[in-house]
Amino acid sequence: MKDSSPIVSSRFPFGGQNDFFCRTLGLIDVSGSRFAIDEKIDVFEKRAAPVSDDAWLGTVPVSAVDGHPADHLEALLSLIVPCDAQAHPIAELRCGERVFRPVPEDGDGFCFVYPVPPAKRVGRHFHDDALAVLSDYVWLGRGAVDPLPTPVTQPDLGARLSRRIKAREVQPLHGVAQSEPFIVALGRYLAVFLAHHEITDAAGTPLHVPFFQLRSARDWIVQLPHVPSANELFAYLSRICNIACEFCYLFGNPETISIARGAKTISKPEMDLRMKLFTPETRQRLFKATWEINEVLVDPKFEKVARELRRRSDETFFFITNGNPLTPARCALLEELKPVELIISTNTIDFRNRSELMHEKETLTNVALGCFEDLDAREICYGISMVAMPDQSFDELEATIRAL
Ligand code: SF4
């Protein structure tokens, strides 16, 4: 039997996400909403559908009175810190009579900063908008088998490209929309809060809050049922590519596809943090972010990261490459890192066609088409990929297949 304690189970070692949903739902007047039921509602994590006891986050008394706005802000500040136009955390903010001095935990050397997304207004009152946000992420119900119908909206997440504001990196919410939607929930909740309530500085001047940061990255360490793969970490090195193929899928992706687009390679502090919190021994890693997958081998941090991960893992490392980073020195590094498997986007063995098709400098095409002997000699396992473009004949495709 469930009791009414607010935090009872979590897939995470830290129950702050559960606590946030239960606290805020307990502050919202749901008596006049479509969720008006009984005296209590059960809250379930929506990702773990169908609704089951495993997804139960807690039981919340139904409220017929809205909590004070500052109580909602306090719940938000347990997990995030509002940031100013320079993307720096706001040191002091006021909501009514209450004063808050959020203390971000920067001890790990990197902070995740995101834009506050556009607020979507669905009703006249804050509780209408707040409930619309929360119910996108949790089921509300009367017991484990009876979830109430809840709306699911397509939120506007703001810009999809990462950007730097002075020394601070702002990452797109698209990077966590699929993998860690609770971060998006927090951003959207902050957005509707700010649309209905004013927060000010100590002098009473209204504050502009275009960004927010996670209070502590360690709140978002994920406990996995399996050993995390080192290959997941390599994916973070692939935020940009050193060429621009005519057929690149990245040019055609619609903006609504929720994957982050990188303006630059991953920063060293973020990679260091992800490496530090990657602990296969305890089956834990930092929350996942999904970025467009480009070229892994050209990131200047690759060598150091790969050596460190090989020290900590004996799994096969898997890389997709356009081939032009496969210089003799890099082939030697890959030999050292074995077991390694490569997929090489060769496309054609014809020098001129490859160079034109992939908008590639001749020196790089030379490397891409000249690496195979070296790979064979070092017994590095590889496959090739080809894109059938109209300007490539079947004879050319066949010649490439036969040659390799
Ligand atoms: S190598 Fe791949 S990621 Fe890079 S431009 Fe070509 S298709 Fe796109």
Mind explaining what this structure looks like?
The chain has 404 residues and is of the alpha+beta class. It has two domains: 16-219, no CATH class; 233-403, Alpha-Beta Barrel (TIM Barrel), CATH 3.20.20.70. The protein is built from twelve helices and 15 strands. It has a three-stranded antiparallel sheet, with helices on one face. A hairpin with a 2-residue loop joins strand 4 (93-95) and strand 5 (98-100). Helix 1 packs antiparallel against helix 2, helix 2 packs antiparallel against helix 4 and helix 3 runs antiparallel to helix 4. It binds iron/sulfur cluster (SF4). Residues 241, 243-245, 248, 250, 294-295, 322, 345, 358 line the site of iron/sulfur cluster. Iron/sulfur cluster is lined by residues 241, 243-245, 248, 250, 294-295, 322, 345, 358.
Low-pLDDT segments: 1-13
Strand order, main sheet: write it out: 2-1-7
Fraction of helical residues: 25-40%
Strand portion: 15-25%
Mean pLDDT: 87
* Main beta sheet: 3 strands, antiparallel
* Broad shape: elongated
Bound small molecules, deduplicated: iron/sulfur cluster
- State the assembly state of the protein chains: single chain
What is the number of E strands? 15
Question: What is the domain total for the residues?
Answer: 2
Task: Please sum up the structure shown.
By secondary structure, the chain is an alpha+beta fold. It has two domains: about 15-220, no CATH class; about 235-404, TIM Barrel (Alpha-Beta Barrel). The chain contains twelve helices and 15 strands.
